[in-house]
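I need you to check the entry underneath: sequence plus fold tokens. Let me know what the token row says about the fold.

>
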Amino acid sequence: MGYQAEIRDSDVIDGLSIRFLKLFGMWRALNDYRTTGKKSIIIKLHIFGSLMITVPYVVFQVQSFFTIQFDIQKVTFVNLHPLPALQMCCRMLLFWFHMDRVCRLYDMIRKDFINIPEYMRDSVRELYIKTNRTFNVTCLVIFIWNAGIEFIFIVFPKVSVDYVQHHTGSMAAVKTGRKKILSGWFPCPMDEYPYYEIIYVYEAFCLLWAATLLNVYFCMFYQVLMCLYAQFTVLGARLSNLKLDFPDFGLSKRHKNIIQNCNYNLYQELYESLRDHQKLLRYTDDLRKFYNPLVTVTLGIGILLLFMGAVQILLGKTSDPSFLFQLFQIFSFQFIEVSLFCFGSSRIESASTDLQFAIYCSDWYKADVRFRRAAQMLMIRTRKSSTLTAIVMYPVNLETLGAIVQFTYSTAALMSGMATN
């Protein structure tokens, strides 16, 4: 990777908050890699710490299949909590092995990523602020919701040790045994002192670590997505402001020279917009390729968690309100992540295709033939929308979200019928 310039706070587009990146050291890690090509100690700590806390948990869960009794309900329940941790590890590994691509994509966070004429600086600044306001609020809501989930799981544990060790079937039917945070099994007397206390602290640390990093990496990847949307939006605003403020008839030779100069300047602005659009397309292709495994894993685990939740609630006949509330928290957070990826991709799709209307709103009918031909070529190029993909070629947008909701409803209806019969 060739070294890149550091991104300073003053380079960031207006209205975009990078507080969460600074709080968890990701901003410094990105700039260190951009300028030196070396991975920061923060990233190494994330990888090393995640391996240290997840490897024992995974080993014990594999061992549990040969030690304790299982049925479909218990398998569903025991595997409910490790899936978000798997998602966290996938995101960190993707970031670790593709930091050069991430740093390149973060060029889109710059306010000078595309060329903005001086007369549009104030309006573009307002547009950036308006566009980024939604992203800032989204990240804040995710972190608050995540903190609430962690607090409830740690302070009000609902997993019975007796159910994990000795029972199958409905978890609600087991009233005995001390309560733990996660559904994992450990090769020790889990309800005895000091094993119970050690496991409680270990699971609390696992939950805090995994949930926090899951949100940090999600917000970091989602930020790049929203910056791409913001750049498409600003480019559309620039194209719609290509104006010629003079009448096109009854002018003298001197005025015709003025018209030629104005047409030339207008064409130069359109030419710069063409170059910016080509630049955005290159970054879109790079982002689509990089995000494909990320979006695939997010959608896959989201669908799997929803399916497992339906099985656990309907077949397991879980009636404990507090446990149902915890399940709702897990599913709602996962659904929020899936929805935001679909929503962000759909917004990019709309912003990229809206460039056609932005060109139409310019004064192309007043401009010369050269401008009209260039505008026509740009309109043809913008017919193809820009979206994320999953499983290599499947487009991700709001229709994808609707398909996931429909699949979940169909699965729940099928499980309900099975449980009734």
Notes: Residues 253-314 form the longest helix (62 residues).
